[in-house]
Design a protein that fits this description.
By secondary structure, this protein is an all-alpha fold. It is built from eight helices and no strands. Helix 2 runs antiparallel to helix 7. This is Mediator of RNA polymerase II transcription subunit 31.
Amino acid sequence: MTTEVDHTVAAAGPSETDAKLRQENQAAFSRDLEFVSSLANPFYLNHLALSGVLASAAFLRYLKHLDYFRHPRYVKYLQYPHALHMLDLLQSEPDFRLACRDPAFVGEVMAKQVAHWATWRDPDANAADEPPESNPPTTESA
């Protein structure tokens, strides 16, 4: 007795599985991207700190997982480059995680961030932050 295999059902199975897996991966990526992007907001960091999330070992492991956003394949999706800097600080600076509880510190971080946004493309504004040359050039008369 031979049994026939319905190849149309067998062929549909893996593609449906692949489609479901792709959809789950896209949803996970979207959640991770939204979360990493939110790290650029100092007020959100304050909320996380006050709720105790920043002190959680599980949260620190999740931050480590988010390092994949540093890869060129994924970094291109970030709109706020500060998010990666905040990710660094959250991963490596326990004092930064504690300081995020302080509204004054959060306000200072926000002010520095806004100041950076206002001047990062303006070379004249950035030149004002540089110290003057110690020996200014002199003109020689002929």
